[in-house]
């Protein structure tokens, strides 16, 4: 990339050149104040508000701290032992993992299909182009991204309302009388799917736009060549689009997985109580209750460490899968 | 390149006007398969669009109904259009003051994080020093770790500083958590900018401060706009941080205010007001979105296709 030094302009000696080295004779007031304000101030703030809380959480997770008193005994891994014997937490952990597996696959598949349709899914002759009116679809689909997730949750909790909700109203009007007062969020079989659907509804548009941008970065000649070679739309998507925007797909998987492992705001709006038999209880929700309702701060921090560990494991898994299936793995390059 | 990219760009009208003639002459190649798949694709996309729009329209419709009308039928039109629900959402729920708090906190945090984020990204991108790589990974960690891990200690950090339940505390926290993303994005952006202009400025005697504020910052406007918009949406929608760190009802921001109003509305069975509150929250966002959507999506595609 641009790792090579600045190009040497003919006629200027390298000594005058704006060097990347931090040379002693450059330590003017301008330079010192520049580095203090530009680097040290923001980094210190970042460490105080972001890094140090993360580090403290790891320490608190080894204590039995209850919060508002300063009594804090070091208990080693007792909190973690307790976690793995806590049926409610294990249930929440299993639910979170299910969300992290299902939601990225479903959301990104839909988003990729939509993105392909509006960019290269148009007629199979002439220039490679998308469907007509595609900007309309794009603008509409992206809209949920700008609505606060809590409001999305509130809207859908009303849509799902057993007696006055839109969904049951529509189903009853279509003649399906068994749904007259069906509690989508209260039934053991539907609660999880109902919650997942809302998250997919809220996320598809963002990833669609992400993929549209990525597909537009692929030179149109490649699509034309594939078409001349006789590749259909499905084949083109699988054999051309996905491999060429692999890095964007990987990024999307990680974003979406992190969102799914959190999911706090959606369940807080839809299922504040954890859903029927805790089928929609997630780790983040359990952590929040443990910390701010029960005041078990040490224990809650142990949950946070578990959540972080699962998040990192998930990211590592996505990188590993991408590499094993032939992608380049350039973390942070 | 510009020609081909405009061909696959989604604007059907321009594609037709540039490429229509040769295509029209070879009309027989518009196969039935094309029409079938085209029809199917449009059906799917229209279905999804309806799935997005209908709940919104239903919320708007319901916001004009009384509670008894809402319970009677989800589809029936209200007897008469009244703004009673809007009045009660605005006054009793205090949506107005939540809105003001949100504006203060989000714009405050945006200014802080954009300023320090761009400065820090600039230094990391242009002045490699021992440890700058480590700092870069520290940012990556801040992006990856869930906020939930930090939330409990953060509560006590803010309490220790006397900033718990205050708007300045929330501003600093928002800014700090938007910081790694800002640095990450702008780091790549500053890397991609040519160094020669900054070098020319340095040779002309401009100091580091001046080079940054008068040369580099104006040059990076497109990148700054993209990050600012993405940060704005992210911070405006932030829910966990205010719920945990800002529990004084007077300081509620819009998202948490909506959540608490929803649970009150549930008890008092005032669903009309809840719908009205949702409309009040969404409409400004909708207007801003419709104005900026081209810009947002344009800059996103610019940033990712680099």
* Low-pLDDT stretches of chain A: 1-24, 329-333
> Largest interface, counted with CB-CB under 8 A?
A-B, 128 and 126 residues
Would you state the CATH class of one domain in chain B? Mainly Alpha
CATH-defined architecture of one domain in chain B:
Orthogonal Bundle
Order of helices and strands of chain A: HHHHHHHHHHHHH
Structural class of chain A: mainly alpha
Number of helices of chain A: 13
According to CATH, what is the class of the largest domain in chain A?
A: Mainly Alpha
Which topology of one domain in chain B does CATH recognise? MetI-like fold
Please tell me what the overall shape of chain B is.
globular
Chain-wise SSE layout:
The complex is a heterodimer of chains A (333) and B (306).
Chain A: H1 29-60, H2 78-83, H3 87-120, H4 134-146, H5 149-159, H6 166-173, H7 191-216, H8 220-228, H9 233-244, H10 246-262, H11 264-270, H12 283-293, H13 297-324
Helix pairs in contact in A: 1-13, 3-4, 3-7, 3-10, 3-12, 3-13, 4-7, 5-11, 7-10, 10-13, 12-13
Chain B: H1 2-8, H2 12-25, H3 32-62, H4 67-72, H5 84-91, H6 95-126, H7 132-144, H8 147-160, H9 167-192, H10 196-203, H11 208-219, H12 221-236, H13 240-245, H14 254-268, H15 271-305
């Amino acid at each position: 990339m641009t790792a090579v030094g600045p190009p040497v302009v003919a006629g200027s000696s390298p000594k005058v050149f704006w060097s990347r080295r931090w040379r002693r004779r450059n330590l003017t007031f301008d330079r010192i104040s520049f580095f203090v304000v530009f680097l040290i101030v923001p980094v210190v703030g970042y460490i105080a508000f972001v890094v140090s809380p993360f580090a403290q959480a790891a320490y608190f997770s080894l204590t039995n701290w209850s919060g508002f008193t300063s009594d804090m005994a070091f208990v080693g891994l007792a909190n973690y032992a307790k976690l793995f014997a806590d049926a409610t937490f294990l249930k929440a952990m299993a639910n979170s993992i299910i969300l992290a597996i299902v939601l990225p696959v479903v959301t990104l598949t839909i988003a990729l299909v939509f993105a392909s349709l509006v960019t290269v899914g148009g007629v199979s002759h002439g220039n490679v182009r998308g469907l007509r009116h595609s900007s309309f679809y794009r603008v509409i689909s992206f809209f949920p991204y700008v609505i606060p997730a809590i409001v999305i949750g509130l809207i859908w909790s009303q849509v799902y309302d057993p007696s006055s909700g839109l969904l049951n109203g529509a189903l009853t009007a279509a003649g399906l009388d068994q749904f007259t007062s069906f509690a989508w969020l209260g039934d053991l079989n539907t609660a999880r799917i109902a919650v997942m659907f809302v998250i997919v509804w809220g996320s598809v548009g963002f990833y669609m736009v992400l993929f549209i941008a990525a597909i537009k970065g692929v030179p149109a000649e490649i699509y034309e060549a594939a078409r001349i070679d006789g590749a259909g739309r499905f084949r083109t998507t699988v054999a051309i689009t996905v491999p060429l925007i692999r890095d964007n797909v990987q990024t999307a998987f990680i974003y979406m997985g992190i969102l799914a492992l959190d999911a706090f705001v959606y369940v807080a709006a839809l299922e504040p109580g954890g859903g029927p038999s805790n089928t929609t209880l997630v780790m983040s929700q359990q952590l929040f209750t443990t910390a701010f309702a029960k005041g078990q701060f040490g224990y809650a921090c142990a949950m946070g460490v578990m959540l972080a560990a699962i998040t990192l494991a998930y990211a590592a898994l996505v990188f590993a899968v991408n590499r094993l299936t032939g992608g380049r793995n350039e973390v942070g390059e | 390149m510009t020609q081909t990219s405009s061909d696959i760009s989604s604007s059907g009208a321009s594609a037709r006007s540039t490429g229509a003639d040769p295509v029209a002459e070879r009309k027989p190649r518009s196969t039935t398969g094309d029409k079938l798949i085209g029809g199917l694709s449009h059906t799917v996309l229209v279905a999804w669009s309806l799935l997005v729009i209908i709940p919104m329209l239903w919320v708007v419709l319901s916001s004009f109904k009384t509670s008894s009308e809402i319970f009677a039928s989800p589809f029936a039109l209200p007897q008469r259009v009244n703004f009673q629900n809007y009045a009660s959402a605005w006054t009793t729920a205090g949506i107005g003051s939540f809105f003001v708090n949100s504006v203060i906190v989000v714009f405050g945090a945006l200014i802080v994080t954009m300023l320090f984020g761009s400065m820090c990204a600039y230094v990391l991108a242009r002045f490699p020093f021992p440890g700058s790589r480590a700092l870069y990974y520290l940012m990556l960690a801040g992006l990856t770790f869930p906020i939930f891990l930090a939330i409990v200690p953060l509560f006590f950090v803010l309490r220790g500083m006397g900033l718990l339940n205050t708007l300045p505390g929330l501003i600093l926290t928002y800014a700090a958590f938007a910081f790694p993303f800002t640095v990450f994005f702008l780091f790549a952006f500053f890397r991609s900018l040519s160094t020669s202009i900054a070098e020319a400025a340095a040779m002309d005697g401009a100091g580091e401060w001046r080079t940054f504020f008068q040369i580099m910052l104006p040059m990076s406007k497109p990148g700054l706009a993209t990050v600012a918009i993405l940060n704005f949406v992210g911070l405006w929608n932030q829910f966990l941080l205010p719920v945990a760190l800002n529990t004084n009802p007077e300081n509620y921001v819009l998202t948490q205010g909506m959540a608490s109003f929803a649970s009150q509305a549930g008890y008092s069975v005032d669903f009309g007001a809840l719908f009205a509150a949702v409309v009040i929250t969404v409409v400004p966002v909708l207007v801003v979105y419709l104005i900026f959507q081209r810009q947002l999506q344009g800059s996103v595609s610019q940033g990712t296709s680099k």
